[in-house]
Amino acid sequence: MINWWQNVNVPLMYLAGWAASAGVLAALLLIIRLLKYGTAPPPAPPSTPDYGLLRSVSMVGDLAFAREVRDRLRSNGVRATLATGPDGMVRILVFADELDRARRLINS
After folding, report:
1. pLDDT tens figures, 36-70
2. Residue 36: which region, alpha, beta or left (left: phi > 0; alpha: psi -120 to 50)?
3. Tally of structural domains, the chain
4. Cα gap 108→99, rounded to integer Å
5. Is the pLDDT of residue 15 over 90?
6. Calpha distance 26→20 (Å, rounded)
7. Quick one: 64 and 100 in the same domain?
8. Domain of life, per the record (predicted)?
9. Is residue 72 domain-shared with residue 31, that is, in the same domain?
10. What is the band of 6 on the pLDDT scale with cuts at 50, 70, 90?
11. Model confidence at 10, in pLDDT bands (50, 70, 90)?
12. Residue 100 forms part of a structural domain
């Protein structure tokens, strides 16, 4: 036996009402999310430059003097290089395992 309500078509108006209310709910959720969280701020630049495995042993303002210090370190067997930072200062960089030795050579 088949009941009459199993064969009756549902009017399209009921489906449109559900779809419209779901769309309004989705729009409200999106607006609330944007108001609460907004867009992510850009990441802040690092406070100190990152040179990976290298450490800054000294900072000088003169490139010629930095080259002299680097050459002195190299002549004593310390691997050294130069980098200019965003502040315009020239950094003398060495590997972390040679940092103490490089500081002793610079201070002597």
Report:
1. 877 777 777 767 677 889 999 999 999 999 999 99
2. alpha
3. 2
4. 14
5. no
6. 10
7. yes
8. Bacteria
9. no
10. low
11. low
12. yes
